[in-house]
Amino acid sequence: MGLLTRDYETAPCTVEVSHKFDSLHAHVRFDNGAVVHPGDEVLVKGPPVMAPYGEVVIEKREARITRASAVERLWTRMTGNLQFMELCEFSFSEEATL
Amino acid sequence: MNVQAPTHTADATTVEEGLAIQEAQAVHDSETATAVAMQNTLLTPRFYTTDFDEMDAIDVSPVREDWDKLIAQMVADPNKGHFRKTEDWDHVDWDGMEPELRKEFIDFLISSCTAEFSGCVLYKEMKRRGNNKDITQLFQLMARDEARHAGFINDALREAGIAVNLGFLTKSKKYTYFKPKFIYYATYLSEKIGYARYITIFRHLEANPEMRFHPIFKWFREWCNDEFSHGEAFALLMKTDPKLTTGRNVLWIKFFLTAVYGTMYVRDHQRPAFHKALGVDPDWYGQEVFAKTSEISKQVFPITLDIDHPRWMPTLKRLQRANADLDAAKKRGGVSGALGKLGASARAAAAFLSLYTIPAIKNDVPAETRLEPMY
Question: B148, B178, B258, B326: which to substitute to probe chain A, counting the most A Cβ within 10 Å?
Answer without folding.
Answer: B178
